[in-house]
Model the fold of this input.
Amino acid sequence: MGNNSLAQGWATVAGIVLVLVGILGFISNPIVGSSSGALVPTDTVHNIVHLGTGLLALYIAFGMSGAQQANGVIGFGVLYVVILLAVLLSPTLFGLFSIAANGVLHLIHATLAVVSLAVGYMARGSAGTADLAR
Done:
């Protein structure tokens, strides 16, 4: 699997999972949502953020290619670094969320950031090499 395929695969998986989590957040369940004791506590605004970032990841996966896709995955990682830092600073995102982010959400945000940055930089390296070979 080439690094560009890895970038597309990662963006696809991240996008599908985020969209599913966003949808699942609107349905009462013990995993994600506003249910008491949910593993991943979210509210309506947070669910919409998951849907939006999931759709962004899917656009990166299927609407971009080559260096543009690699840069898109890096940008997605930077976005999640910003999200992580913001919810670490203010777990309710300065009052935007009615339910505070917990440690599980911080871990998820950090994972999305680190993996996206790593995959994006690997893909950027192979996209740059492929572009030079032409």
